[in-house]
């Protein structure tokens, strides 16, 4: 019997542990309702880059997977490879495999076949930004250690989602920023990624503070 996957969540300074809901064996399929999608979660990385086996407590929990069932979602299709918010959705164990049931708005973006974050297609009003390089020296020329370098909160827009639906008019409202713009964003916003020595962040349009020129 497969042990249910566990998820730690921080809530008001407390740490709680939630077990995945095991779908009874007589049920072989889950049909999402409304704008929800069912995602089969990518396998956890059990080894470090150097091949060292990692204990379960230090493994990075995947937040990506393939869409295996779709409700009435408008921007996500069956078989899409998606990235989703870390603590979003309801975890399910179906036929011994880990899945997560998500609202469409919990999906950050759709990955291309290459799985490159730099080519991520953001969903809704989200925006993909390539972060600026951190300064490695102080104003006086003192070399900073990487952990003490001030982290920039601005970068270049790489891709923009199609926009959000206005609650009253039901019309699609496109973001006001375009690819190529340099923007400043809220310090603690978004979801961060590292790839090929570059930093990326996906934020909502409301987290964009200003465009820089």
Give a short overview.
With 213 residues, the chain is mostly beta strands.
SSE blueprint and pairings:
Layout: E1 6-11, E2 14-19, E3 21-22, E4 36-41, E5 64-70, E6 81-84, E7 90-94, E8 97-103, E9 107-111, E10 121-122, E11 126-131, E12 154-160, E13 164-165, E14 172-173, E15 182-185, E16 191-195, E17 198-204, E18 208-212
Parallel strand pairs: 3-7
Antiparallel strand pairs: 1-2, 4-5, 4-8, 5-6, 6-9, 7-8, 9-10, 11-12, 11-17, 12-15, 13-14, 15-18, 16-17
Describe this structure in words.
It is a single chain. This protein is mostly beta strands and 213 residues long. The chain has two domains: 1-111, 10 Kd Chaperonin, Protein Cpn10, Chain O (Roll); 117-213, 10 Kd Chaperonin, Protein Cpn10, Chain O, CATH 2.30.33.40. Helices cover 0% and strands 41% of the residues. It is built from no helices and 18 strands. The protein has strands at residues 6-11, 14-19, 21-22, 36-41, 64-70, 81-84, 90-94, 97-103, 107-111, 121-122, 126-131, 154-160, 164-165, 172-173, 182-185, 191-195, 198-204, 208-212. It has an eight-stranded mixed β-sheet with strand order 3-7-8-4-5-6-9-10, with no helix packed on it. The chain has a six-stranded antiparallel β-sheet with strand order 16-17-11-12-15-18, with no helix packed on it. A hairpin with a 2-residue loop joins β1 (6-11) and β2 (14-19). The relative contact order is 0.14. This is 20 kDa chaperonin, chloroplastic. One of its GO terms (cellular component) is chloroplast. Pfam families: Cpn10.
